[in-house]
Amino acid sequence: MDDFEILAQQLFPGITVTPAELEERYPQRDLPEGARVTRFAPSPTGFMHMGNIFSALIDKLNADTTGGIYYLRIEDTDKKREVENGISKIFEGLNAFGITPDEGVMGQNEEKGAYGPYQQSRRREIYQCYAKELVKKGLAYPCFCSEEELSRLREEQEAENAPVKGYFGRWTKCRSLTLDEQLKKLRSGAPYVLRLRSDGDESKRIFVDDLIKGRLEMPENIQDIVLLKSDGIPTYHFAHAVDDHLMRTTHVVRGDEWIASLPVHIQLFRLLGFRPPKYVHISPIMKLDNGNKRKLSKRKDPELAVSFYREQGYPKDGVLEYLLTLANSNFEDWRRANPTEPVGRFPFSVKKMSQSGAIFDLAKMNDICKNKISAMSADEVFQRACEWAREFDSELYGLFSAAPEYAKAIFAIDRDVPKPRKDIAKWSDVRQYVEYFYSDIYLPDSTLPENIKAADAKAVLESYLRVYDAADGKDVWFSKIKGLCAPLGFTPDVREYKSNPEAYKGHVGDVSTVIRIAVTSRTNTPDLHSIMALLGEREVRSRISGAINFMSVKGE
């Protein structure tokens, strides 16, 4: 047994599993040629943001469009940052947008798939197996430097203006320790970390063909990075290399802030004897702020948090559709050509992703969500609005539950038509949309537009009450409104008013607006005849009478 094997046995006496056994335990996946295996691998820190969702979406599309596998791995080796139920929050955040993994972590204490455990904290033996192998090959060693010694090292490098700051070259104090020196320290119980014995050459370069950024070039890693911390827990760099290999990950999608770590990651894959995955480095989602681009901020931008979209009630299919416009610039053309096709049939391509950060536009997302909701049936709108209200608006949920058919009738107005209205972008808009149908939450407001006088409005409403008949069909109803115009100084012909506005107080649209305000307190609503029919004669007469009283006081 040579010195390295003796050291490996001293460091890892309880590790008996071998890399060969792990290779057999986690074989190559039986997938079609060209199928991609992707992973979303967050830490359970409790905050899911749109950057996470965007990255996970690209993972899923990458896998789905090639007949591959998208899995969820939890990188929870840093227990200090972990929050209670953090894993559940991650899975719920993904599930809320329909980005459910094919395998991996499926909940707080639930996994699915043959390549687990999918939580890094449960894979300690696996990491230590490969760490032991690196020690046996002379590629890793224990470092006993204290925090004070490392601080002095950094101070020396700062004083000398060293081009690289870290544990490398002549500063690697523990790299040259003899076996006897190492064993003596280990037997004395001295704390240590396990470091990689880097074979990097600062004069040499690595080259990586990123699927978005293109060919990347940078110096080799020369630092002896930490593989295992003093508690035996792996660093992110080491753990992810082992996991991506054993889980047979083919494509790694991640933020471009990780590009700087490529020299370390490529070196680790090589020294471990693994084939590195393909890399897809995504630029961060940006926002325009006073004409300048900046990253979305947790402090400044509520729309960054995934919880914002749940609380506001954005339809997940609308949000995903918007994210696809950020992912591939040709998505909007495809959608126009395929208005009813599910997004799963869109031919997504990583190669069509932008190298620069996409601009996040909440107004555009609202428009897309309005389009999605406008295309839904009344039953679907009712069901989804109810689901949201059950959690976020108990009063509205109570109203819907008490009379579901009435609520569905509200949503049916102006829906099954060639050009349905687009009033609702998110389910939190529903309360404002339906409130005038419910006396419990309706607050009358008879404020008139500036072009209509209170006395004229009062005259319109008094005249209308004399001819109003709840049994009238829409054509008769509107003909009666037109019949009110001339005696009251309005014209039933809008074009006539536009050609000679001085001759009239207004036109038939103004007369309709007065009635609309009296009944709904709005100047813009769906079909007024349908609204009045649903409210019923008693309620309509009551509201118009109330508006007349308001106009009487205002006109005095």
Structure explained in plain terms:
This protein is α/β, with parallel strands linked by helices. It folds into 4 domains: 173 residues, HUPs (Rossmann fold, 3-Layer(aba) Sandwich), CATH 3.40.50; 87 residues, Glutamyl-tRNA Synthetase, domain 2, CATH 1.10.1160; 59 residues, no CATH class; 102 residues, Arc Repressor Mutant, subunit A. It is built from 23 helices and 15 strands. Strands 1-2-3-4 form a 4-stranded mixed sheet. Strands 5-6-9 form a 3-stranded antiparallel sheet. Helix 21 packs across helix 23. The N and C termini lie far apart (107 Å).
Can you give keywords for this protein?
15 strands, 556 residues, alpha/beta, single chain, Rossmann fold, four-stranded mixed sheet, 11% strand, 23 helices, 45% helix, elongated, three-stranded antiparallel sheet, 4 domains, Glutamyl-tRNA Synthetase, domain 2
Q: Summed up, what is this model?
A:
By secondary structure, this protein is of the alpha/beta class. It has 23 helices and 15 strands. Strand 12 (286-289) and strand 13 form a beta hairpin.
Task: Please render the helix and strand layout as text.
Blueprint lengths: L2 H9 L7 H7 L11 E4 L9 H15 L4 E4 L13 H11 L6 E5 L2 E3 L11 H13 L3 E4 L3 H13 L19 H9 L5 E4 L8 E6 L3 E6 L6 E3 L7 H11 L4 E5 L6 H11 L5 E5 L3 E4 L2 E4 L10 H7 L3 H12 L3 H7 L24 H13 L3 H15 L1 H9 L1 H9 L17 H5 L19 H14 L6 H12 L4 E2 L2 H6 L6 E2 H13 L7 H8 L1 H19 L1
Parallel strand pairs: 1-2, 2-3, 10-11, 14-15
Antiparallel strand pairs: 3-4, 5-6, 6-9, 7-8, 12-13
In the residues, how many domains can be counted?
Answer: 4
| Proportion of residues in β-strands | 5-15%
Structural class: alpha/beta
The name of the CATH superfamily of the largest domain reads HUPs
The CATH topology of the largest domain corresponds to Rossmann fold
